Amino acid sequence: MIIYAGVDGTSMSFDDPGYEVTFRNSFVNKMSRNELVQFSDTFYHRGPSITGHETYSLARMAYTWVVTRWKTGAAKAVFLAGYSRGAAAVIEVAYWLKADGIPVECLILFDAVDRSTPGPGGGVGGVFQNTKIADTVRQTIHPMRDIPATRSRISFQRCGQKSENASMPYTKSYFFGTHAAIGGTPWKEATNPITGAPRGTIWEGGEILPTTVTVEQDHACAAVVASWVYPQVISAYQQCKTRLDTPPESWIPERPGSGQPDRPSYGPGPGNGKRIHVVQPGDWLSKIAVTYYGDMNKWPVIYNHPQNRQTIGPNPDLIQIGQRLVIP
Q1: Considering Cα of 202, then 205, then 207, then 208, what sign does the dihedral take?
Q2: Cα–Cα dist 28/37, whole Å
Q3: Domain with 312 in it: what CATH number?
Q4: Do both 256 and 223 map to the same domain?
Q5: End of a domain among 225, 245, 265?
Q6: What is the CATH number of the domain that holds 190?
Q7: 42, 72, 305, 319: least CB-packed within 10 angstroms?
Q8: Cβ-Cβ contacts under 8 Å for 8 (sequence gap 6 or more)
Q9: What are the CA-CA distances from residue 305 to residues 70, 95, 267 (Å)?
Q10: Residue 155, domain extent
Q11: Residue that terminates a domain, selected from 230, 245, 260
């Protein structure tokens, strides 16, 4: 019950008839078709137009889809992916999901940029509204274009660089290719955007300067990005599946005199009949409830245990790393 939601990159217009062909083999699209791993359910939507007006509504669509499946029990883990402005959209989705107590297993960003106008509820849009990656994201993967070396999309602002959780595993790398190549849609020809005349390197429409990237280098870059991203996504998926498939009884209990265990302990503790969870970075009560009970709405069961209330204090949203919580 691992689900996937993806929002793809930008095109000139929202009703561009050529979009489906251009983005057929984008990384976000291919993952939605389960060409990499077998998600139990997937959501995919094309990206916004060049103005970015649709970014907010696309983010809300993806968010609603995830929440619906989570609340109906059709999902136990969530993968999110986005390219370009679509990446900005799924960053926002992860942030909104945090308020619902829904964690994100893996956030995959392909050259995230945020050049959108704000939606009716704010959030996505503008270089001054870049949202931090929520601390409820377990890990983030982010390939990006090397702007100084390639001169690709110099006018685009980059987002997805900051996280609420400094200890979150965040792997990112820079590649010699255009913004298009990073999303899996490398250029097919290099021409002058005004005259249409062929040229040696790619010149992206709307940019003052041409890139330093040839068409051949762009296609090679897309292949390298795939070879860098895909193993990480497969690993994240396999780790998630293993955790979900592992019965609670098989988890290692706390060892007597060992202090804090390396991972949460299930089953009776040493000599006291209690299950103990040691709060880890990125934990919150709803997430812990999902781990032990499979239901985020059971977080009050944990919080209302007298020993836990004394440990946590009056605000259940403020749990601290290293706190030892009894799991009733």
Answers
A1: positive
A2: 13
A3: 3.10.350
A4: no
A5: 245
A6: 3.40.50
A7: 72
A8: 23, 26, 28, 29, 44, 45, 46, 47, 82, 83, 84, 86, 183
A9: 26, 29, 17
A10: 2-245
A11: 245
* Residues 90, 232 within the same domain: yes
CA 301, CA 310: separation in Å to the nearest integer?
14
Are 277 and 152 in a shared domain? no
Same domain (yes/no): 193, 119: yes
DSSP 118-172: PBTTB-S-STT-PPPBPTTBS-EEEEEE-HHHH-TTTTSPB----BS-TTS-EEE
CA angle 239, 243, 248 (to 5 degrees): 160
The whole-angstrom separation of Cα 38 and Cα 31 is 9
| Same domain flag for 228 and 317 | no
Residues 149 and 269 in one domain: no
Is this model's pTM higher than 0.85 or not? no
For 21, the token pair is 């062909």
For each of the chain's 328 residues, which pLDDT tens digit applies? 899 999 999 887 777 888 989 999 999 999 999 999 999 999 999 988 887 778 888 999 999 999 999 999 999 999 999 999 999 999 999 999 999 999 999 999 999 998 766 655 555 655 555 788 999 999 999 999 999 999 999 988 788 998 998 888 999 999 999 999 999 999 999 999 999 999 999 999 989 999 999 999 999 999 999 999 999 999 999 999 988 887 654 444 444 444 444 444 443 343 345 789 998 877 788 788 888 887 777 888 998 998 998 899 887 877 888 899 999 9
Q: Could you give the number of structural domains in the chain?
A: 2
